[in-house]
What does this fold into?
Amino acid sequence: MTLTAPTRTLTAEPGSGATVELRGVVKNYGSMQALSGIDLAMAPGEFVALLGPSGCGKTTALRALSGLETVDAGSILIDGVDVASTPTNKRDIGMVFQSYSLFPHMTVTENVEFGLRMRRVPKASRRERAGEALEMVGLGAHGTRFAHQLSGGQQQRVALARALVTRPRVLLLDEPLSALDAKVRVQLREEIRRITRDLGITTVFVTHDQEEALAIADRVAVMRAGRIEQIGTPRDLYATPVNPFVADFVGLTSRVPGRLVGGEVVVYGTALPLLGEPQPDGPVMALIRPEDVVLADAGDPDVIEATVVESSFLGSLRRTRFELPDGATLSVQHDVGDHPQAGERAYLRLKRNAVAASAIPTEKSAT
Amino acid sequence: MTVANAPVLVSGVVQAEPGRHPIGEPAGPTTRSPLGGLARYLGLAPFAVYVVIFLGLPTVLAIVTGFFTEDGAFTLDNIAGLFAPVVLSTFASSFWVSAVTAVVGSVIGALVCYALLGTRAGGALRSVIDSASSVLAQFGGVMLAFAFIAAIGGQSLLTLWLKNTFGLDIYADGVWLYQPAGLLVVYTYFQVPLMIITFLPALEGLKPQWAEANATLGGTRLTYWTRIAFPVLAPSFFGSLLLLFANAFSSYATAAALVSQGSPIVPLQIRAALVSETVLGRENMAGALALGMVVVMVVVMWGYSVLQARTSRWQK
Amino acid sequence: MTTKNSVRLGTEPGTVARWVILGVVGVVFAFPMLAMVEFTFRDGLSGGHTLDHWTGLLSEDAARTYRNLFTAIGNSLLLAVVTVGIVLVVLLPTMILVHLQFPRLRRVLEFVCIIPITVPAIVLVVGLAPVYSVVVEVFGGSIWTLAFAYGITVLPYAYRAIQSNLDAVDVITLSEAGRTLSANWGRVLWHVLLPNLKRGVLAASFISVAVVLGEFTIASLLNRVNLQTALLQVGQSDPYVAIIFALLALLLAFVLLLSIGRIGRSRRTGSES
It folds into this structure.
């Protein structure tokens, strides 16, 4: 389904986005602590993704922001005002849920108008603004349809229009694309990014899909077990993860044994710079990215001998898993021209890029 | 009460896709029978014969005898008799009792369902209420009549207590328990559980996301119920109401046990017609009355199935 | 105390509202039951209470005095057994056959099994009278022939109970597996299908028994004697005994329906095949 360029957009007042801040937010469910002190400060118009595995607290944090969950400690500030005691319907936010949120008995237009109706906007104005919002998401012609007549992607667009038509200060998205097909997901995330940028609205986007987060966010907060492990631009997270969990979560990595000697990680005879904080010398697990390993020939310097385990074709590139003599595996990303066969002997070389490493045995494997 | 089982069954008929099976629908019988052709259907014969004789035939007879006199001559007299004032008032009485108990039953039942929202589906409270409702929805006829005679009859504890303590004689104007007014109270006793059984699934089908979306869009609890929950529940509510109407309309046993004088409602009128053979000086009035009842039931159950279809469309 | 999210949103009633509604409705509905129980202990109009009515049933001449009632109970039990027999011998095989061999007829079968809801007993009985005059000629006048009509009355219930079991267990795949393992249809039915249909069959049987025990309309208007007609009759002369037996019948029905619920629940919580 192609996207038509919107003919009208909602007018964006410059800097219309609000500042959003979470300070020391704690949330307990009985004896379990879902959020253990979250600190997050967002600039107006910024797009932040909360990324992490299920159970890490990212959805809880979002719902705390929306007011659908109460917090046990800490403050939530929108434009500098603590809203922790303000009920959801007074916080002036827009929220898009994962699924099933459209009201089934109302047409698309009525759904989109709902927030305006709650704000007592007069009928003619409501109609006009709802129409604009639907145009903005490319569904201007579907106003009289019902939710069950729309595809999943269309439903989420309507949900987006509905959330934005009231021009809220903050937009919250709770895994809005998780229930959709892969292709629709990619299209729609671009749409969401473009719209929020045009409107200058501060946005928080929850997802468990690292590719999604890295692709569209200004900054990404990687969460685990109720804490934010690292916040940074996608580039920062990818290039300089602060710990193996982040490194592992953001991008595919192989774990191989090595030694930390004099600030360098020595892996199979190759010395690589260490990423992150200096660590004491000793045995470590190094995290190697697939694109940091190349296929080489037998005679090249510093080659590692390996056997092909399996190779997958991924369209524009190939990813092959190799087994090393000591039993470790190394994933390598390479050109589709090379076609390794299972069981073949091959030779690999490590690029001299910095790698993250963690001492054994304190943290043998991340997550 | 056979009507008590309608909810799941009717919705099944309405939505059923014939024989949809993951492997794919076989074109017909998959095994090769030694006999070919129509003999394949032999297996269905016992059931078919049974149903034709004991369901098809009596239904047809019941509906059709109204058109014939005792001697077998075709006549419209009996049908005309349906419009005699006596019979019309009987139908009106039946409608009245059914409608009132349907409305009261559905409102009280809906309230109980609301009170059950949020309780755990397998939990103690819910199981007790589920079981009690299925028993009480079936509970009718003679036993129910006895229960009410014991509870609020002339010699019951309650009546005597009211009389002695407050000087209030609830039967001062006549013993209404044994008249259509009494049926209003007694029928409600099985209407409410039937409503609980029928309506609770719909109430549980309300998605939490709707309430949350309502909140984020600036709505209050009131707007949630008035603009979202009630409209979404309306088809199911009115469908259940129709079901309750049909249930009361077709009830015979309870009224037979309670009402000894006269035939104020249609099922009792049918009894009179069967027992005394002539009603209004016409034979075969029972058939005409049966026809009248079937017409009403078909209309009501059709309405019910339409509303069920709407409900399932919205609450997928 | 923080209120639950769902209460704040309005999707759930507050504790007070919940228990007020359930409490009031509960008391009102328990009252007739309790009144019945109290009634059985009453000592005539004197206002006192006695166990006589209950103990009287165990006395020696109880069997004689209440002979008609006990015969009627026997009749109802016999009818229940024969009705269950009809369900198991006529309905169940047909449902399995349609499910396996005639999937397109499933909707027809469903529709047929729903007709008894739209054509209630009081209407059916008008047409049953002539049918039964023939039945009496063929099978004699004994009470068990009434089960033919009861089989129709329980159709909607039995159908639903068995069909939900058929839907939950993939009968088609199971029978195909059995066939490819060289079992003939008889063995497939006995060794493969029926064991997996136990729950539906039990539920259908229990609910049929409950319905048959409570049936009044057809028995009464065809001038037969069963539990309910006898209760009505006895009630006129000895209301105490009538109510005692009404309570016992009710208790039995309650136990049966509870068991169905228990069977259903154990299916859900039990091992997932």
Q: What stands out?
A: Chain B touches chain C through 105 residues (CB under 8 Å).
